[in-house]
What we know:
alpha/beta; 16 helices; elongated
Amino acid sequence: MKIGDLARCLALDANDYEGLPVHVAAFCSYLIQQDNERLDAHSSLRGDDQSYQKVAAAGYALAKRSFDDPVVGSFKAALEHLAGRTYFVEGRVPRFEIDSIALLGVALGAKATGISPAHGVWLHELLQRTSRMLEPRDWQSDLVAIAKGVVDPNCRTSTKDPRVAVAFVKTATPGEVQSGWSEMITRVGEDEPVQIALNRAVFDRCAAALAALPIAESDIAGLIASLEGLAQSMSHWTYETHTRVKRVPMEQWEIRHEYHVQNLLWTVLRPVYADLVDEEFLPKVGHKAPRYDLGVPSLETIIEVKFMRRAGPAACREITEEVAADCSLYLTPSTRYSTLIIFIWDECRQTEEYQTLKAGLEGLEGIKKVIILPRPSRMEVRRAGSRPNSGDSKG
């Protein structure tokens, strides 16, 4: 089943809500994000009808968003009235005291409006008695367990149905979320509104977590992997040797200097690392005002770009000296950076020098990785306009 189809299966319409007890309708509206606005209709407790169902419905509304003082005051007055009643009376059919949806709504509303110590004790004792009467493996007992945790943060919450934990416990572990998703999938066919609401709460939480995932690992390892992957992605770099579109001249995206390489890296990294910055000056070191190429402040990492125009050990030694100087300027106590990644564009494709060059540079303190990208063979080595220096220095 596709995600979109699954979302449509886990929805309630106006006809589904019609005829539900008011507190059950509020419970469903509370759990289903797209139906949260329905809670506004349950917030008011004006009039003589202040049944426990309406008090619980108002509790769900108050737990979802703030209301003005009259609404809060009417809920507190209704809570006072509920607390004054006697429950578990022999010979009388229990109602509120075993209605887990109502008990949770009242608990959530009490917490949202600032429950008094006296009401906290009353409600906690009531929930304790209720939990002893309900089937311990029933989802309704799980709601009571959640309500006890709402009233008393020190109360250890344990639920048998993992969907309940995902729906109500913000600190649910990844394992619990996975279990909740698995349980939800097995119950997709259920048509009872309460079960649909529980399933939809799990779906919404998992969908939100999925939407928040970065498109690639956003740690140092992910940064290095992105840079190393450029060697493969350059196979699609535009460097035409013949006309591909009629009446459109062929195009060759030439990499001519260090700033072109920086632009390439920026294009690749910026969608993943939102705090990526370029060409920033660091605090002065004596008369020197160092400026790095690219930086990821959240990773305390600088990416320094070098452009090797000449082949041979002499060019490699020059690059090594430049990088060593960069380390001494960039990784000082006055900067917010602690790590360097060196990215070298090798115009001459001297791959036989790479092992020695990388070993030497990665032995310098602070350098996490050296990545060398040889000019792709499909881009013939440019001769015209070449300059005899090994790198572009900045100061």
